[in-house]
# Entry
Amino acid sequence: MSSLIKFINAKIEFLLRRIIFIRMKRRNIKARKVLIALKRYGCIEKRTTDHGVILENPKNKQSINIPTHRDELAVWIYHNILRRLGINKEEFERDFL
# Structure
C-alpha cells in the first residue's frame, strides 16, 4: 500500500511541475518592455512602420521588425527576435529585462 501511495505522490508531483513549466513557458511579454530593453542592449531603431519598429543590432548588422500593434508579444515571437538579432537569451534577460 505504501509503495502505491509513493507512486501516486510522485506522479502528482511530476504533473504539477509539468503544469508550472508549461505555464511559465507560455507567458507573454510586453512589447514596449522588450523594445526598451533591446535599445538598452545597443540596438538602433532604423525606422517605424505601420506594423512595428525595425531595430538593427550594430554588432552583426542583423535587423528585425518588432511588432507593436499589440500590447504583448507571444513567447515564440520574443525568442525569434532574439535569435534573428543574434542575442543570447539568458544573458539578455539577466542584464536587460
